[in-house]
């Protein structure tokens, strides 16, 4: 075990102790050397931590420490065999526990992460799910996270990026236009709940961003990607162009940071408690998803083309609910 170059600072030491005590209680019998290896510390640092824990506790009603108010260890095993056994602990049982529903939700999220290729067979995720199950106030409900078409596409895209091979796919853009593309995948980017492939598009002869859930019929070809080392690949997901459309909206001040990627400039004007700002978008169709993600927080002001596009989209969605109720019949 390599010696630590610098002693732990107070905040880091506290974090270590908060992890060390549950570790000891879970393992019950722990060799000092085993604990040192687990936490990446020296054996003497572990012994010092054990001695510190043995002087810690929670004062009783009198405000003083009685024997049952302190942690206690098996001193014979510690001093003679270099083994740590906690024989009495305080306060730990009073820690809040996750409800069965909370634990089930977290476990479902971890199951989703485990399904991605880079996390396949992850021992850390499996261990965390086991701890959440054991530490919940009741047995968590068993949930299954179904793989979507986008998840399957994402796995193939990751393989293409890792192996440096070209992809072919059908792509439906925001204007509703579908076409077959051939691209050199460069990297995968996530924004909120969406995944994007940044790739050199042979059709457009430029770097483009493709939303994964709009890609279909993906084929991983045997063709290697070209050399794009001399090409400027943007660091950000969205880049402006001369053909972009300026759209004026009124937005709730609390929601303004969520529009930071779309702001044309930093100018704002207060109108009836909202902020009037200008957004720069590739086309009006991009407004539909933007407004849907911020319901009631964004109002499109101009141009008329943008207002009409959002209004028609909202009316079509509302009509869909009417059709569903009609097909359900009387109750």
TrEMBL record:
Taxonomic placement: Bacteria, Bacillati, Actinomycetota, Actinomycetes, Micrococcales
Superkingdom of this protein's organism: Bacteria
First and last residue of the signal peptide: none
Protein name: WYL domain-containing protein
InterPro entries named in the record: CBASS_pafABC_assoc_protein (IPR051534), PafC-like (IPR028349), PafC_HTH (IPR043839), WCX_dom (IPR057727), WYL_dom (IPR026881)
Domain WYL residue range list: 154-218
Pfam families in UniProt: HTH_PafC (PF19187), WCX (PF25583), WYL (PF13280)
PROSITE patterns for this protein: WYL
Domain PafC HTH, chain residue ranges per copy: 12-134
WCX domain boundaries: 245-316
């Amino acid at each position: 075990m390599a010696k630590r170059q610098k002693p732990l600072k107070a905040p880091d030491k506290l974090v270590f102790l908060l992890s060390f005590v549950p570790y000891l209680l879970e393992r019950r019998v722990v060799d000092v050397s085993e604990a040192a290896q687990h936490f990446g510390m020296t054996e003497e640092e572990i012994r010092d931590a054990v001695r510190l824990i043995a002087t810690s506790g929670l004062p009783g009603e009198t405000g003083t420490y009685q024997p049952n108010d302190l942690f206690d260890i098996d001193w014979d095993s510690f001093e003679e065999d270099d083994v740590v056994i906690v024989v009495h602990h305080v306060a730990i049982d009073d820690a809040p526990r996750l409800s069965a529903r909370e634990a089930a939700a977290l476990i479902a999220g971890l199951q989703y992460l485990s399904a991605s290729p880079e996390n396949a067979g992850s021992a850390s995720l499996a261990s965390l799910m086991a701890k959440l199950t054991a530490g919940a106030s009741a047995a968590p409900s068993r949930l299954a996270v179904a793989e979507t078409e986008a998840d399957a596409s994402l796995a193939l895209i990751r393989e293409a990026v890792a192996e440096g091979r070209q992809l072919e796919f059908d792509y439906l853009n925001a204007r509703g236009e579908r076409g077959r593309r051939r691209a050199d995948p460069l990297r995968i980017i996530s924004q909120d709940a969406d995944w994007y492939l940044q790739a050199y598009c042979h059709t457009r002869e430029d770097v483009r961003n493709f939303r994964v859930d709009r890609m279909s019929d993906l084929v991983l070809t045997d063709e290697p990607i070209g050399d794009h080392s001399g090409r400027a690949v943007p660091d950000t997901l969205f880049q402006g162009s001369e053909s972009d459309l300026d759209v004026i909206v009124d937005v709730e001040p609390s929601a303004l940071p969520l529009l930071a990627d779309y702001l044309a400039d930093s100018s704002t004007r207060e109108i009836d408690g909202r902020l009037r700002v200008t957004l720069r978008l590739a086309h009006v169709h991009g407004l539909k998803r933007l407004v849907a993600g911020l319901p009631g927080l964004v109002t499109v002001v101009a141009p008329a083309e943008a207002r009409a596009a959002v209004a028609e989209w909202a009316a079509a969605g509302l009509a869909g609910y009417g059709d569903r109720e009609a097909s359900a019949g009387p109750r």
